[in-house]
């Protein structure tokens, strides 16, 4: 695993760490490595691959997934987004293709592409 490709910088981590569960000051179980876990979640979001394809360096994929679900249900990610919103760095722009819609005419429906006799597309 190339740690130079990790997304969470030391500055960002310093801002996020106090908002994460499993700190030594929290009651209950201490999180094993919150920073590595967060990198695993971001890796999954960036690549769009299934949890089962998570590199083993991040730990057991099912454990990471179950922890992700606990954090999602507990509102942890909302707290993190609230902390870092307003300061975009535009290094990454993620768009989930499952919500992107195109109008039926965007696919060339009903009539398709009209060509000039020369073979070039006709201007409308």
From TrEMBL:
Domain of life of the native organism: Bacteria
Pfam short name (any one): DUF4096
Membrane-spanning segments: none
Domain Insertion element IS402-like: start-end pairs: 8-81
Span of the signal peptide: none
InterPro entries: IS402-like_dom, Transposase_6_like
PANTHER family: BLL5188 PROTEIN, TIS1421-TRANSPOSASE PROTEIN A
Protein name: Transposase
Source organism: Paracoccus acridae
